[in-house]
Amino acid sequence: MTTTALVTPAAELVARRVPGRSLEAPFYVGEEFFALDIEAVFARSWIFAATEAEVPEPGDYVTVTVGPYSVIVVRDDDEEVRAFHNVCRHRGARILNEPRGSVGTIVCGYHHWTYGVDGRLLHAASQEPGFDPTCFGLRTVQVRAVAGLVFLCLADRPPADFDDFAAQVTPYLAPHRLRHAKVARQVDLIEHANWKLTMENNRECYHCAGHPELQRCYFPLYNFAEGDVPPALRPTYERFLQADAAARAAFESLGLPYAAVEDLVERPTGFRVEREPLDLAGESFTEDGKAAVRRLLADFPTARLGHLGLHLQPNAWFHCAADHAVTFSVIPLAADRTLVRTTWLVHADAEEGVDYDLDALTNVWEVTNEQDAVFVARAQAGIGDPAYVPGPYSPTESQVEDFVRWYINRLSAYLQEGP
User: Fold this and answer.
1) 403, 407, 330, 310: which is closest to 372 by C-alpha?
2) Rounded distance, CA 300 to CA 303, Å?
3) Could you report the per-residue pLDDT of 287-334, keeping only the tens digit for each?
4) Which residue ranges does the record assign to the Rieske domain (predicted)?
5) Pair 164, 273: CB distance under 8 Å
6) What's the sign of the alpha-carbon dihedral 293, 298, 304, 306?
7) Per-residue model confidence as pLDDT tens digits over 33-73
8) Is the peptide bond before 314 cis (omega within 30 degrees of 0)?
């Protein structure tokens, strides 16, 4: 079967994208591209939706909104994570209207059609003889749980590379036992910028001088080649070399995989995973680098294990230390507004006020997120200025280029294949 490529102003902009330079303004400010991003990227990719710790018991649910789509992520009575479109099979009413909660059954508040947490229609009053409830269960959404992280795909035929992604990242994630963690805090931040600016900002540390709290514990050497490290960062680089050698020895002694695995551009489920040292005490994302939680996530013999970093195209990144983990999800709300949801996970039995101080646990990333929100809002304002023209990426922004290439590939595939 042949398909006809869609020829639109958006398609022309996609086709003329110049490698190594930022995207043209319409990609960030135009309503056409916002709608295209939802359909071509978010509705066709595996996206990070939640952690299993957010739905620990049968009947626990969260709702996830992506453009016009609303999805229920729920744990069923067999303790499996399920996902359904949040649309009643009667006349289409939204069923669950809260961001999270717990239910015995899923009941539409309009005409009280009632569904099990497995999606089956259990009750629909006043139907004609012969009505078959098995034909009116909730419409399912593809969902996968990987080492405690929940991913969903809205497409009927999701990208087939997810099994390979899961197989490669599970050995890195599994030692942290995220499936058995609990949520210590979750913070939603609205950034006044396009979602791509949020993701691009995360993919480089060219701007990390603007994160003094993070720079205390995190080596700001992201994507620097040895010969490109500026003089001001040479002392930091020398500390990194010493910490890296010690960290590699520790990882190997514990059998923890640490080598970088990177496939960010060509595959639909682009990702990068690596275990690296942290600065100062080397234990956690705190201002002194010491563990913020006395009870570690798993049975690690030491807290000095740096951090595991995972990036996923198009909407997530993760940091796992020995004592806690932090997940970040990015959801487009409008062409110039983006939801960044940050979730801190700790051992299920860790007690606030006993094993950890909540503010000390979350401070570094909360402050960093707020700083990033300012940076991307400034970028959005500048890109909306008629004087804006795409500028060149520096060598340390190679993963920004990787993200943009991945994004252009996804749009090109959609425009070639059609909806």
Assistant:
1) 330
2) 7
3) 999 999 999 999 999 999 999 999 999 999 999 999 999 999 999 999
4) 46-152
5) no
6) negative
7) 999 999 999 999 999 999 999 999 999 999 999 999 999 99
8) yes
Contact 366, 178 (CB under 8 A): no
What mean pLDDT is predicted for residues 116-121? 98
HSE-up (13 A, CA, CB side) for residue 200: 23
Q: SS3 of 34, please?
A: helix
Q: Look at residue 248 and give its three-state secondary structure.
A: helix
Domain ranges of the chain: 47-158, 161-403
Distance CA 415, CA 13 (A): 12
Task: Write out pLDDT tens, residues 63-103.
Answer: 999 999 999 999 999 999 999 999 999 999 999 999 999 99
* CATH number for the domain running over 47-158: 2.102.10.10
Strand partners, 312: 271, 316
161-403: CATH topology:
Naphthalene 1,2-dioxygenase Alpha Subunit; Chain A, domain 1 (3.90.380)
Query: What pTM was estimated for this model as a whole?
Result: 0.95
- Look up residue 142 and give its DSSP letter: E
How many residues are recorded in the chain?
Answer: 419
Answer for the pair 197, 380: CB distance below 8 angstroms, yes or no.
Answer: yes
